[in-house]
């Protein structure tokens, strides 16, 4: 499979899940909508995973080589702490520059109390789709055009706008950090480990507090 075809497939799948989830929740608010979005997100993640497995060509980030499995895991787990620190810095900067309130997870925790299986969408399916779309496709392909920093900045900003536009600065910094983790190991598995870990920790903390 070509890089272009892979990019179209991954981005189309991500957009279909994103827009489809909004439509489902609009038509069926409440538990029915959460069950529907969970099913759609999981199906989309599995489809994206299958598309991704079929890509044999390396992206610009992967051409320098793939780190060992142990290194990927170490960077991924370390990345959890890196991302949490960057989130704190981003939140502080937004408060200082824009007087923006800190982001909350009230909506997500309420949804999880209602439909616990929704965690599968939040903690696994959506991070997988986002890492494939924003890191492997956008960052991985733009790096050869704009350079690594330019690609990280663009993909980070797009990631922020797609996930939480009201906190675009924090989201952009986090997106750049995920791109850094990808660059360090040449594998999208590394930022995916960090992404899943961060969401699991923050959602777990929000639920229990």
TrEMBL record:
GO terms for molecular function: endopeptidase activity. The chain crosses the membrane at residues 7-28, 34-52, 73-99, 111-129, 141-161, 190-208. It holds the Pfam family Rce1-like. Keywords: Hydrolase, Membrane, Protease, Transmembrane, Transmembrane helix. InterPro entries: Rce1/LyrA-like_dom. The keyword Iron-sulfur does not apply. GO terms for biological process: CAAX-box protein maturation; proteolysis. Residues 116-197 form the CAAX prenyl protease 2/Lysostaphin resistance protein A-like domain. Belongs to the UPF0177 family. This is Metal-dependent membrane protease. It comes from Lacticaseibacillus camelliae DSM 22697 = JCM 13995. The lineage of its organism: Bacteria, Bacillati, Bacillota, Bacilli, Lactobacillales.
